[in-house]
Amino acid sequence: MAEPKLDVEKWMWTDADFDRMGWHDNQLHGIARYEKVDRDEEEGSEGHYSPIELLLDIDYILKWEKSEPRWQWWVTPSTLVFDNVDDFEMKWSPNFQWEISDIVRAPAKYPSGRDCWKWEIWGTGMVFLAEGYKQYIRQKPILKNFQSFTFEERGGVSFSKQTVE
């Protein structure tokens, strides 16, 4: 019998797709901050700093399927990257989860007055300002009886921006 296959519409999603995406029950495996610093080794000085990126390594649920007697999920390791992050806060609490219950946004402004979004990642305590995001689908989705991969199944933590295709 052939392995089930899900046709993936695209391998990189952006904030333009926000209303078509959902992150409920997505497992969070890692959090990273990236800022490129141009250094002049000869002068020993640091020059230009790039805007900060917030990278999340998640198991993204592309589709939920009702399969008697229970649900199954099409899951894939993905990297969610928020651009030009500012005013980041993360509250660790007894209710902190390594599972996203939802991601919401509201119009906001950077301290400079430029337009952006205020993002909240429910279940994690993360709140920040950012222009938008890109989400990179790193592997072909697999139909699973669980909503996430084990650490071994997914090959550890990754913040790669390389998509499958």
Written account of the structure:
This protein has 165 residues and is mostly beta strands. The protein has one domain (12-35, 50-148). 2% of the residues lie in helices and 53% in strands. It has one helix at residues 151-154; strands at 12-14, 26-34, 37-40, 45-49, 53-67, 70-83, 86-90, 99-100, 102-109, 115-122, 126-130, 132-137, 142-144. Strands 1, 2, 5, 6, 8, 12 and 13 form a 7-stranded antiparallel β-sheet that branches. It has a 4-stranded antiparallel β-sheet with strand order 7-11-10-9, with no helix packed on it. It has a two-stranded antiparallel ribbon with strand order 3-4. Strand 10 (115-122) and strand 11 (126-130) form a beta hairpin. The longest helix has 4 residues, at 151-154. It is globular, with a radius of gyration of 18 Å. The mean pLDDT is 91.
Topology:
Elements: E1 12-14, E2 26-34, E3 37-40, E4 45-49, E5 53-67, E6 70-83, E7 86-90, E8 99-100, E9 102-109, E10 115-122, E11 126-130, E12 132-137, E13 142-144, H1 151-154
Antiparallel strand pairs: 1-12, 2-5, 2-8, 3-4, 5-6, 6-12, 6-13, 7-11, 9-10, 10-11
